[in-house]
Design brief:
It contains six helices and no strands. By secondary structure, the chain is mostly helical. Helix 1 packs antiparallel against helix 2. The relative contact order is 0.03.
Length: about 160
């Protein structure tokens, strides 16, 4: 049952209960006329869409009738899903780019530390520094050779 039928039944019940009063007859007639006008004006259908698609109908939203929306509901849902996926992928991409930048900075810092450590190690491993350290400790029996190295030829 529709709302107008419910209203009509309620009004009829009220009118039947109070039929004795002559004033009620005029109210009953007015009510019936009002209900008829409501039924005539109440349409559950959308007005027919004209084929003229103008800027005014687009901006006014007149082209979005229920029939058109029902007809194209699949494509509308698909567009919404694609929009959500696009936003999600863009957000994930930005998060990945932030993580990559952070890791590149850490890599650059690690490279600089490795270069610094390598230069320090190279400096400490020089022959002159090793000899100075041996002389300063005086507990080592190692010293610099006075003779050149011997070349030993091994026949094959």
């Amino acid at each position: 049952m529709s709302k107008t039928d419910d209203i009509e039944l309620e009004i009829q019940d009220v009118v039947e209960e109070e039929k004795a009063a002559p004033e009620m007859e005029s109210i009953k007639e007015q009510t019936k006329k009002t209900l008829q006008k409501i039924k005539e004006n109440a349409k559950e259908e959308d007005p027919k869409f004209s084929s003229a698609l103008t800027l005014r109908t687009i901006l006014g939203g007149d082209f979005l009738t229920a029939q058109m929306v029902r007809h194209h509901i699949g494509i509308i849902v698909l567009i919404v899903v694609f929009a959500i996926v696009y936003v999600a992928f863009r957000y994930q991409c930005q998060q990945d780019m932030i993580a990559i930048d952070k890791m590149e900075k850490e890599l650059l810092d690690a490279k600089y530390k490795a270069l610094s450590s390598n230069s320090t190690l190279t400096e400490k491993c020089r022959e002159s520094h090793v000899l100075d350290a041996l002389k300063n400790n005086k507990d080592s029996v190692l010293h610099v050779s006075d003779q050149p190295p011997y070349i030993i030829n091994v026949p094959e």
